[in-house]
């Protein structure tokens, strides 16, 4: 035996571990949904702990999905499956995914999209990106969230808006630097915004790349996350 140690590509090992964790957490979320379904609706609102478990589990799941996708982007292994989709239907599906969380937190989510609006995008990647944004928006919203979609400057504009406190001033001013480190007061790392920005950039046309924009005050009183897809 040579006694030489076999080199291990740590990023690959980490990606495999994240993949296994994501699958296990997915099974836990399915089991939790099954438990919730067996609880009479009349008493669900009284079980606030279920809302916390569901919400935090969804957040962890989104983080794992993002980490795995970012690794694949870095390795140029993330497939891009562009399709022609009904935007209103797509946004309504995203809202339905978070029906339990919205109900527990007494938040109303509504979709506002131009009639007959279709666009080209990767539905799975976009769902992952918007899913993280919606989950965080639920955390800060007071009572309402709006999903908007329309065409402007020959690009699809997707907006997730809420009636919460809005984005911090520092985040608005330095929104190109998504990974700002850990915010000790909120625990935010900016990973979700960075991931969304990367997914937007994967969508390009005629030399134009997709991007994201953060703002406050429009179309609601709180924060507004905008994804622009050419």
Would you give an account of this structure?
This is histidine kinase. It is an enzyme of class 2 (transferase). 48% of the residues lie in helices and 21% in strands. It is α+β, with helices and mostly antiparallel strands. It folds into two domains: 10-75; 83-229, 2-Layer Sandwich (Heat Shock Protein 90). It starts with 9 loop residues before the first helix and ends with a strand. The relative contact order is 0.12. The mean pLDDT is 84.
Give the topology, please.
Layout: H1 10-37, H2 41-44, H3 48-74, E1 83-86, H4 87-97, H5 99-104, E2 108-113, E3 118-121, H6 123-140, E4 144-152, E5 155-162, H7 169-173, H8 191-202, E6 204-205, E7 208-209, E8 211-216, E9 223-229
Parallel strand pairs: 2-4
Antiparallel strand pairs: 1-3, 4-5, 5-9, 6-7, 8-9
Helix pairs in contact: 1-3, 3-6, 3-8, 6-8
At a glance:
This protein has 230 residues and is an alpha+beta fold. It has eight helices and nine strands. The termini are far apart.
Write out key terms for the chains shown.
two-stranded antiparallel ribbon; 48% helix; 9 strands; 230 residues; Heat Shock Protein 90; alpha+beta; 8 helices; five-stranded mixed β-sheet
As for the number of domains, it is 2
Strand content: 15-25%
Biggest beta sheet attributes: 5 strands, mixed
Q: What is the class of the largest domain in the CATH system? A: Alpha Beta
């Amino acid at each position: 035996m040579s006694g030489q140690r076999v080199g291990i590509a740590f990023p690959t090992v980490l990606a495999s571990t994240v993949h296994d964790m994501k699958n296990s957490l997915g099974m836990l979320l399915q089991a939790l949904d099954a438990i919730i379904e067996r609880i009479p609706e009349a008493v669900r609102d009284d079980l606030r702990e279920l809302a916390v478990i569901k919400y935090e589990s969804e957040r962890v799941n989104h983080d794992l999905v993002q980490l795995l996708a970012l690794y694949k982007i870095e390795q140029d292994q993330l497939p891009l499956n562009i399709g022609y989709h009904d935007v209103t239907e797509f946004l309504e599906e995203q809202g339905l995914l978070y029906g339990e969380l919205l109900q527990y937190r007494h938040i109303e989510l509504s979709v506002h999209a131009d009639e007959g609006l279709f666009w080209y995008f990767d539905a799975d990647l976009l769902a992952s990106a918007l899913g993280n944004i919606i989950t965080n928006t639920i955390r800060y919203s007071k009572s309402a969230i709006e999903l908007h979609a329309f065409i402007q400057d020959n690009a699809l504009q997707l907006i997730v808006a809420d009636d919460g406190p809005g984005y911090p001033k520092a985040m608005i001013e330095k929104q190109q630097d998504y990974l700002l480190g850990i915010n000790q007061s909120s625990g935010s790392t900016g990973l979700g915004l960075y991931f969304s920005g990367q997914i937007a950039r994967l969508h390009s046309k005629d030399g134009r790349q997709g991007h994201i924009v953060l703002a406050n005050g429009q179309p609601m009183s709180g924060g507004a996350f905008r994804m622009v897809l050419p």
